[in-house]
User: What shape does this take?
Amino acid sequence: MPREKFQTLTEQMFYILLCLRAECCGTDIMRRVDEMTGGQVSVGPGTLYNLLDQFAAAGMIRETGRKGRRRSYLLTSKGSQALLREYERLCRMKEDYVRGMGGQ
Amino acid sequence: MKNVKYYFWDYLLYDFAGVERRLSELAAQGWYLDKIGAMWWKFKRGEPKAVTYAVTYIPEASEFNAGPTEGQRELEAYCEEAGWKKTADWFQMQIYSTEQPSPLPIETDEELRLATIHKAMRKNYLPSSVLMAVIGVILLLMQGSNLLSPPSYAGFSLKATYLFGVLDAVLLLMMSGVNLAGYYIWYRTSGQQISRGGGCARVFFYRKFNKAALALLMVLMVCWIGGMLAGSDPGLAVYMAAYMAALFLLVFCVKKIQQGLKRFGLPKGVNIFLVFLADIVLAFVFMGILMYVVWNTGLLF
Assistant: This one.
């Protein structure tokens, strides 16, 4: 993949990690992202499955429980750092935009 | 009126869009996927409906697993939540369907989709295509050297057999070469399209090419066997027909053993080992029977 893994986050990655500040399972994540963004960002089940798998492999989330076919996850400190890094990047972009447009 | 139909399934494993499109077309005609076979997929008649099919991939899925993996079950739960129902799986390919008019797509990140497909293809499609190309090269070298050997100990029919072998190897090489190059081009084009904000590229022409190559192979085989039967060497023609039949029987038996072991609930590693063992043993048994018949009937002498 051209993107260096998780150095920057896509919208879907960002919102999934944000949801996982509180423990929840994949099906809850799909619903929460939709509610959180007013339907602007949707995470498909295949994308969610693969991202959770990759986040877990990268140590950004950890599995906290299992109920039938559903697994619950929680953000780790590494995941929190990635989320914060992305937030700071977005803030810098916003500031650059304001400066670039001649605003305050 | 027939309630079951079999379709020759010549889609490549990475052509998710082709599979989705074809399954939706067949559902609109009232044919629903019932069972996936090695080359023929079984469909059952039903009421024609507008059904959307979606394909996704789980790289760790395998035909040798006793049942669905935890990952497959987890994905199924997420898909059910989004209104998708599991229809079937084919190697790493997971097929889902829904009758919702505008369903949430299963894949919403094209870059991730491409990476997942590539990971799945590296596990299955690419190694098997490379293996096919290697077999093609070995066959070409063997049959080519036989064909070019002095004619003193090789009669006309035997030379025709070697020529058939050379053409066979060339076709095999062409098919694996075209399919490997086709995948490489598709993967690159998809990556470029995604980086410009698009989706994965459409896969073109391979089905026509593969069908034409197979048809050519069949025509060559019929001409060659027919020529020998009509000519001076009917024994060789019978031997080659029996050899081909034994080859098909071997593939059929190995597939059945693999499915049986899977139903028996054996772990993946044990299944692979036993199938490999059965493959070797059956190959020796079939060739032994064939040689015994040849020796005792004087078919080739």
